[in-house]
């Protein structure tokens, strides 16, 4: 539920704010391609498989599906930590988990390979750009896991020492990201349009993880409140009333 709602919020945000910028970028790319056409007009233009309205609907659906997939993976990771420490408060734990996931999956890769409007650039480099972005995501995930391990293993130390070591580890992960190759394809759009698109793209990720954290943490608090009366009854030593059904009492 948390992943689906987060994906829906990000999809509607992108549809209302980012898609108009994408349309401008597509029109700019089409105008640039027309400028480089031969004088005789021998270049053939292929019709798009899906209209822009269909692509808009597909954007929202794709983000909802992505949110559901993220929710499943997040729940598995959360359950593993919860088994080790079941008494932890679900609200700050959900916020901390989502902040770490946002850095690993969204922020760190975006710093190395900022988003570019779809359909802009050389189509022959799409595969290379996807592989580089996937490598950045893998490094980000493994790096945040290393940050968490450093923070856990320094538990006997003072809090400033633990936080400083974790921050230093995160900085080393960023340095490692810059060891990846540069983007081979320049983005031939105006700097203002590109900046706005990248900021809106990152904002959609922030919204996804914020809604996810709020819903997941809220459901966790609800589960804790539901278990509190049961735990209180067991602590008082009051057993649950037995249901004997049709069994006759023994005299």
From TrEMBL:
Signal peptide limits: none
Keywords from the named record: Membrane, Transmembrane, Transmembrane helix
Pfam families per the UniProt record, alphabetical: CbtA (PF09490)
Family matches, as InterPro entries: CbtA_put
Highest taxon above the source species: Bacteria
Stretches that traverse the bilayer: 57-81, 93-111, 131-152, 164-180, 200-221
Protein name: CbtA family protein
Species the sequence originates in: Streptomyces aurantiacus JA 4570
């Amino acid at each position: 539920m948390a992943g689906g709602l987060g994906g829906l919020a990000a999809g509607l945000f992108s549809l209302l704010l980012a898609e108009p910028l994408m349309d401008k970028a597509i029109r700019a790319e089409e105008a640039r391609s027309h400028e480089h056409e031969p004088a005789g007009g021998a270049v053939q233009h292929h019709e798009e498989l899906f209209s822009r309205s269909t692509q808009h609907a597909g954007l929202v659906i794709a983000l909802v599906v992505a949110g559901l997939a993220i929710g499943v993976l997040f729940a598995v990771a959360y359950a593993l930590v919860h088994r080790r420490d079941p008494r932890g408060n679900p609200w700050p734990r959900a916020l901390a988990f989502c902040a770490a996931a946002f850095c690993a999956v969204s922020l760190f890769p975006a710093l190395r390979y900022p988003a570019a409007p779809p359909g802009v650039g050389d189509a022959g480099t799409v595969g290379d750009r996807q592989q580089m972005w996937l490598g950045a995501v893998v490094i980000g995930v493994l790096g945040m896991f290393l940050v968490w391990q450093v923070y856990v293993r320094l538990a006997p130390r003072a809090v400033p020492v633990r936080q400083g070591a974790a921050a230093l580890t995160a900085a080393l992960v960023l340095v490692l990201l810059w060891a990846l190759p540069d983007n081979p394809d320049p983005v031939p759009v105006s700097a203002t349009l590109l900046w706005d698109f990248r900021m809106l793209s990152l904002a959609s990720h922030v919204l996804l993880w914020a809604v996810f954290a709020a819903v997941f943490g809220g459901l966790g608090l609800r589960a804790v409140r539901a278990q509190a009366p049961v735990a209180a009854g067991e602590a008082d030593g009051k057993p649950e009333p037995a249901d004997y059904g049709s069994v006759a009492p023994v005299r």
